Amino acid sequence: MSAVDDMPQTPRSSPDGAAVDPGAGAVPRPLQPVQVPGCGLTVAAVQPEREGLPPAVFVHGLGGSTQNWSLLMDRLAGDVDGQAVDLPGFGQSPPPDHGDLSVTAHMRAVVDYLELADRGPVHLFGNSLGGAVATRLAALRPDLVRTLTLISPALPELPPQRTALPTALLAMPGVPALFGRLTRNAPADQQTEALLELCYGDPGQIDAERRAQMVAEYQRRMALPYSLDVLSGTARGIVRAYTERGEQSLWRQAQQVRVPVLLVYGLRDKLVSYRMARRAGQAFSDSRLLVLPEAGHVAMMEYPELVAAQFRELLTAVPTRVG
What we know:
Blueprint: E1 28-36, E2 39-46, E3 55-59, H1 70-75, E4 81-86, H2 103-117, E5 122-127, H3 129-140, E6 145-151, H4 165-169, H5 175-183, H6 188-199, H7 208-222, H8 227-243, H9 250-256, E7 261-266, H10 276-283, E8 287-292, H11 299-302, H12 304-315, H13 318-321
Parallel strand pairs: 3-4, 3-5, 5-6, 6-7, 7-8
Antiparallel strand pairs: 1-2, 2-4
Helix pairs in contact: 2-3, 3-9, 5-8, 6-7
């Protein structure tokens, strides 16, 4: 495990950070609806470059979707057969029938999908909320996981960073409704820009085409009648997971993970402090660390080539350490 302070200043992988044409290489497959117990999921995939590649599954963060993984999945098309999942209530997936939006419920949905698709063990990727989901899954269902790649995982950080407090407020009763009233007439591009400022180390590196796609997706998302309810319910689930103790503690579960782990943190992350990298490195018994000085909360979107390269190094360790 590399020390955070010893990491060199990493150069950008391309002039605009991550803005390389995501279609230049692998061919995207259409979104596919999948029914699992209690909810419907939507799955996106990138056509692998050849048959027989090991399966991988990608899990997004709070408010995210399968689109968050398209750049990284494209770059890994020659290494894994990748599929990304829209968690219940996010992206193109409807809210769950049971209404449970906890970290454990999201984990169960991913487990149900893996079992239904018979894809395990997989190389499991998680960002933010997806990192908490993936950590719990790897601890409780080690038979389904081959390696674990966590990008700014939402593991308990108390107190949280000051810049993360507005996101935590979504968990409080009445706040989502107030947010909806305050932003009802605000232009979608301004609201999207605020989110990009929160999640990206340098939003100025996003090209115009991708930015327009993000604005359109934000408009579509906020027009859904359940959008704010799902956000607030899932935020409450994250807060609840942060306070769990004993065997249910996410940090305790991190200690139970036995597969190789790649940890990715950005020094400009406003939601998960890079200082948590040290604790994560101590918790996971077999981990390696990538710190990107210019990255924010979504390194797989900002620097997909660097994350992909580091994952390929992780792959070299798998045959001798995983059955």
